[in-house]
Amino acid sequence: MNAALRRDADVILRSSLNAVLPDEAVRRALRDLRPGKGRVLLVAAGKAAWQMAHAAVETLGRVDGGVVVTKYGHVKGEIPGVACYEAGHPVPDANGFAATQKALELVQGLTAGDTVLFLLSGGGSALFEQPFVPGAELQDITNQLLASGADIVEMNTIRKRLSGVKGGRFAQRCAPAQVFSIVLSDILGDPLDMIASGPAVPDTSTRAQALAAAEKYHLALSAQARALLAQETPKTLDNVTTRITGSVRELCRAAASACRNLGYEPVLLTDQLCCEAREAGSFLGSIVRTQAGQGKKLAYIAGGETIVHLTGKGLGGRNQELALAAAPAIAGLNAAVFSVGSDGTDGPTDAAGGYVDGDTLAALEAGGWSGYAALQNNDSYHALKAVDGLIITGATGTNVNDVAVALIGEKTPPVSPEVSPEW
Are 130 and 97 contacting, i.e. CB atoms less than 8 angstroms apart? Predict the structure, then answer.
């Protein structure tokens, strides 16, 4: 492993993630809160729910009751006046259903003078759920969608119609109370009705789109689920005020700033990355090969959310696949590619993402690993673990999508494309 580049990668990640923690953003958004004369209740859902709720209660001083539902391992302590629950992600589970029921009970019977402070972040689609179909069936549909390669908009268009809280229905349950919603965006372009499936936002998707997505991915659905997809969701809401705070664009800017501080010349390629993870990794590796040998330190940054088509039964996540796919292109170079999920989790693993450099391919082969076979089996986790290529941060407290960075060291030799290693 290239120790110097790994140190730089760790510094860049730490600085970037700290820059997009929701604390200050939540405090800024709360300046616009104008509560009524009644109670102020808090409901927070998503991977960043605890961090957002903690900042909100610290800023407000107190709330009259609250519920937080977040991913396992993401509750970092008690919050005065707020009950905190952990639940399953990316597949919803019984604990998530029970926690959502607690939130719905909290907002029952409110008056027009009451205010619901609703704090939402990515992951809420799985964590905040009251299913209209049996829980086991919803889990099966979620697993089908995750394995299909469907993007997050397609997934949420379907999930909204199977839920009693998504697609604006939670805000309806709060009426006539006013809902003040602070949203931490994890979807490209910040479409409010798609972030965590928009529990407090009028839905712009249609039943025709939901049925088309189900057909496109050949989902096995019960007659009940198919009938629900044919129903419409709320298209207007008059009791909600929304503030977006945080996005992948801010994460990319923070990464660029951290690279610059380390002497790299940063280039932001995109904050709208939305292709296959292994294609993105191969592309970043190709950029490295083209730009190597200029005698200066360069950094290429891409933010967004890639997808993975499951073809095997291994363990990994989209960021780990992206990194592993870059390994052959940068073999032998003074360069590195790394990619992380800003929430600290990548797929069903304890890793935030993956790191490879010019030494990774040789290390894999020396250990008896075939990178190509690992990708085909979706087993990037074990391959990277074998060469110390996992990035493990733990729960970060934020969730604004993923960032991938390609670093080129100053003394990188020029290379010829025709001798690029192949898998």
Answer: yes
Q: Which two tokens stand for residue 141?
A: 């549909």
Q: What residue ranges define each of the domains in the chain, with the CATH number in brackets? A: 3-17+249-408 (3.40.1480.10), 32-246 (3.40.50.10180)
Of the candidates 184, 88, 195, the residue with the CA atom closest to the CA atom of residue 142:
88
Whole-number Cα distances in Å, 298 to 115, 265, 267, 330: 49, 5, 8, 14
Q: Which of 283, 331, 307 is nearest to 90 (CA)?
A: 307
pTM of the model: 0.77
d(CA 78, CA 60): 16
Q: Measure CA 226 to chain center.
A: 28
* Phi, psi (deg, nearest 5) at residue 419: -110, 15
pLDDT 10s digits, 77-132? 999 999 999 999 989 999 999 999 999 999 999 999 999 999 999 888 899 999 99
**H or E element: which one contains 298?**
strand 298-304
Q: What is the pLDDT of residues 139-187, one digit of tens each?
A: 999 999 988 888 888 998 999 999 999 999 999 999 999 999 999 877 7
Terminal-to-terminal C-alpha distance of the chain = 20
* Residue 8 dihedral angles phi and psi, to the nearest 5°: -60, -40
Tokens of 128: 């905040």
With CA atoms as reference, report the closest residue to 129 among 74, 87, 171.
87
**Exposure pattern of 136-156 as b/e (b: 16+ CB <10 Å)?**
ebbbbbbebbbebebbbbbbb
d(CA 60, CA 107): 19
Give the residue from 309, 196, 293 showing the smallest Cα distance to 242.
Answer: 196
Q: What is the dihedral of CA 319, 185, 136, 50, to 10 degrees?
A: 100
DSSP 20-87: T-HHHHHHHHHTT----SS-EEEEEESTTHHHHHHHHHHHHS--S-EEEEEETT---S-BTTEEEEEE
SS3 label, residue 203: coil
